[in-house]
Amino acid sequence: AYGDAQLPYKDPGLPVEDRVRDLLGRMTLAEKIGQMTQIERLVASPQVLKDNFIGSLLSGGGSVPRKGATAAEWMSMITDFQKACLSTRLGIPMIYGIDAVHGHNNVYGATIFPHNVALGATRDPELVKRIGAATALEVRATGIQYAFAPCIAVCRDPRWGRCYESYSEDHRIVQAMTELIPGLQGDVPQNFTSGMPYVAGKNKVAACAKHFVGDGGTQNGINENNTIIDRQGLMSIHMPAYLDSLRKGVSTVMISYSSWNGFKMHANHDLITGFLKGRLKFKGFTISDWEGIDRITSPAGANYSYSVQAGILAGIDMIMVPNNYQSFISILTGHVNSGVIPMSRIDDAVTRILRVKFTMGLFENPMPDATLADQLGKQEHRDLAREAVRKSLVLLKNGKPGDAPLLPLPKKAAKILVAGSHADNLGYQCGGWTIEWQGDTGRITVGTTILDAVKAAVDPSTTVVFAENPDAEFVKNGGFSYAIVAVGEHPYTETKGDSMNLTIPDPGPSTIQTVCGAVRCATVLISGRPVVIQPFLGATDALVAAWLPGTEGQGVTDVLFGDYGFTGKLPRTWFKSVDQLPMNYGDAHYDPLFPLGFGLTTKGKAY
Ligand SMILES: O=[N+]([O-])c1ccc(O[C@@H]2O[C@@H](CO)[C@H](O)[C@H](S[C@@H]3O[C@H](CO)[C@@H](O)[C@H](O)[C@H]3O)[C@@H]2O)cc1
User: Fold this and answer.
1) ipTM score here?
2) Gap from CA of 493 to ligand 1 centroid (Å)
3) Lowest CB count within 10 Å: 58, 182, 425, 591, which one?
4) pTM over 0.90
């Protein structure tokens, strides 16, 4: 065999397309299919990667080398897998993907940024770009080169369990927030051709616009369900952000579990091949969702042979299997050998995958860069997250009718009460997709709770009392100058978050009634979406929609105490009743409690 130097595909001086063509021409069918196969780390081993020529791995939600694993331990895992892939005949490096959807959220000690709904409330694309850049560094701190972000769903019904992963009900806001892509990947160069993949090197990561297309439009917000809308509606609401993503060089597009008018997206050749690849000229690679092709049939997996055929022929290039890779590989091999799937489809998929790997420099820098390990949870990133929290909070009420505004609160007071289930719970304030797939309760990682932040913010002479759910006597007799009450939703992810009533769990509402019935109070609502608030809206003096702020709770107190003013604007309509849903800005029956764009302001010392 040639030495490395003589292998054209290994020559970084050659144009990417020449390297792709040379390498593709050398590959066996097994090596090609291996590149199209993404497996979960839990079923991977160096031997499995070598034997099957696997081209990609992932961590599903919560899938970590060890609970609390350090950056070094992550890098060590990636290094072992990569060495195996590089030891194969052609030495094609693997790409490792993970859901870094609000920071590097699977990883202990990572900065956890506010979820997308909060970022939509900031109306600040430049901030989102900076978040992307910080996230890329923290992902690279673990040796990982690929993030399954941004989710550019346009959530049209807050009953959807993933609505907090959507920047807004307004596609224009979602389009603006695709700035996360150049943050993650780097800015595309001059004379860039829309649709080509782009990643600016080893401090950046490949991004993934998801979930193509119409994931946020399912009926009644039922996860993975059916988006019933005409073509004009699909193209005007759910598609625009994909055009922005392609113009910004997004390297991959993940296909949605949902259906469009009863037709599974994972089997939709017209939209994947005809529109995304044909009309929009997308040249990166498409990737299925987790068991996405299995779920083409009902029940899932009922006919995996058909699932493989339909998904690959629709134009999906990489399959997030993620576990039964032997079955996937043997069935796909059979389909090619029998002519059910033409080699040209396989070559198109592998061409796209190799194009991304060559473009991002993976052949030149396949291994983790240990010098980036200290980027994980870096204070500079936490400060950025704190800024994002400040800018995301939406002030819905500030003082009862006839009363003076309550906010900003004085830092100097004799004694204040902090109450509520979400006041001292880092897991609750981070929400789903944090450390565990479904999120968790308690001090799950490094961060600052709202209570921690209040204690740090107030004057040293101010006594801070915490009571999670105090009784009326306690509050009445406590001599408190005012109270801060933090309550809201418990963490959820995907289907587990689907809700038909959108109420917050007890004792949230009663905690508000009890505390605010006895002392002037500011309620901080932790939720992934608008929820039912009428039961306590009259009782509270002030009400702040804080969404899912993440680890940097000081962003909340920065605006509560007036160091900064409230500037956030609702990225979603706040309904009066769930019976109105779906109800979005522009609907004929639009009759909100608070409209899209609503947000009271206060003056802060800083601005
Ligand atoms: O054993 N069970 O009970 C069980 C239940 C549900 C499962 O379903 C699975 O659960 C999660 C387990 O990690 C997976 O993340 C996905 S979700 C999918 O994952 C991608 C990769 O993480 C993300 O980029 C996408 O944005 C997201 O839509 C799937 O729904 C799996 C197992």
Assistant:
1) 0.94
2) 9
3) 591
4) yes
